[in-house]
Amino acid sequence: MDLNTSQTLATPPPRLWASVALAAAIAALLLLLIVLPAEYGIDVTGFGKVVGLTRMATPLAKTVRLTDVVGGNEKIREVAVPDAGQPTPLPNPAVFQDEAAPPLTRTLQITIPAGKETEVKVKMHISKVVAFSWQVGNNDKVYADYHGHDPSFGAEFFVRYKEDQESNSGNGTLTAPFDGEHGWFWLNINDHPVTISLSVTGYFDDLVDYGIH
Predict the structure, then answer these.
(1) 47, containing H or E segment
(2) Using one digit for the tens of pLDDT, what is the confidence trace for 150-178?
(3) Domains of the chain
(4) Of the candidates 85, 158, 83, which has an alpha carbon nearest to the alpha carbon of residue 119?
């Protein structure tokens, strides 16, 4: 076989080049019409909006910003020392709140039938503080979820402070990270009624019992 014959055989036929070009064009078209609108929301042709692909690129979760109402004071040693006799300023002064009235105290007793549930919420403003205590009578146990809602963030938004699959009591404090409702969901996991005694003390607007469900 001479040199000219070898060179002729090594050269791809025009039909192969045409197939490669067609495949590349189809891939580019799919990228432009489908992948970019669906994955990244980039819809330069408008085709993705027409067929609904751009909705696939919309994030399912919302981003919300919660205010840090107690943090920052761990940096107190980094604050410049003032003149002699003057107090060192707190990085986050919200830890002290001067109130015009004494704290409220509310108590509730809720009886939950077997297999039923209830919610009790404290309506609070951001940075306000409550102390709470609850117990189940006769040492029975319930499922308990302590969480908070802010309606301005949407109906699906909530934050969980604590969850207990089985518990007969809870004690603690809460500094509200946002305006809204903060409280408890209780589910009676027993085959008989249980009674929960709840006490809340602090600076809040109302204590709402949403009843038995």
Answers:
(1) helix 47-51
(2) 988 888 899 999 999 999 999 999 999 99
(3) 3-57 (no CATH), 104-212 (2.60.120.510)
(4) 158
